[in-house]
Design goal:
Elements (H helix, E strand, L loop, with lengths): L1 H6 L4 E4 L7 H20 L3 E5 L3 H4 L8 H8 L5 E6 H11 L6 H11 L4 E6 L1 E2 L6 E2 L8 H7 L4 E4 L8 H14 L3
Parallel strand pairs: 1-2, 2-3, 3-4, 4-7
Antiparallel strand pairs: 5-6
Helix pairs in contact: 2-4, 5-6, 6-7
């Protein structure tokens, strides 16, 4: 993984997806990520974790979630977070914690983590369906989130665009270039 990242000229390596309803799996993955992050650091790379909604909605009991395990177990000196804003907002809404203020929930997630948030995945959320939407066409107040916490890298994304990937990237890029925060 490290050799590939260096060959491609990447600055970041990010774990894109993990999912289990077993707390022990999350603990084991966090331990493995800490080991991998130390190796990545020696190679001059930053190592992070990318969230989805289920980290905020799976309940291990007593209100304990995968996000709690990760932020407790991942070494903040080695592992950063790449917050997917759409999924954090959706996780807040689906868990019931962010229904009234999904951006506030997302900012709380960012601020309460001991790990640094260095990257955002930026895609919007359709207010009627909850589906992914191109930037600026949905309900997420990105300026509020960006004012609350700035990052090194903003990644435009829409997993299910209505147009070509090039068009959705262009829409997202234009939106971000014009956004003031």
């Amino acid at each position: 993984k490290i050799a590939n990242a260096r060959t491609l000229g990447q600055r970041f390596m990010v774990v894109p997806y993990l999912n289990s309803d077993r707390e022990d799996d999350w603990k084991r993955w966090a331990e493995q990520m800490n080991v991998e992050a130390a190796a990545a650091r020696k190679a001059g790379l930053r190592y992070g974790y990318h969230n989805h909604a289920h980290e905020f909605t799976i309940d291990f009991g007593n209100g304990r979630r995968p996000w709690d395990v990760l932020t407790e177990e991942l070494d903040p000196r080695l592992v950063h977070l790449e917050i997917d804003i759409y999924w954090a907002v959706t996780g807040g809404i689906n868990s019931g914690e962010g229904v009234e203020d999904p951006e506030g929930f997302t900012l709380d997630v960012i601020r309460s983590a001991p790990q640094r948030v260095l990257q955002y995945h930026v895609k919007d959320r359709d207010p009627a369906t909850g589906d992914m939407a191109d930037l600026g066409t949905g309900m997420i107040d990105f300026a509020r989130i960006f004012r609350g916490h700035q990052v090194m890298e903003y990644i435009v994304e829409n997993d299910t665009p209505d147009v070509t990937p090039q068009q959705t990237a262009a829409v997202g890029y234009r939106y971000l270039r014009r956004l003031r925060f």
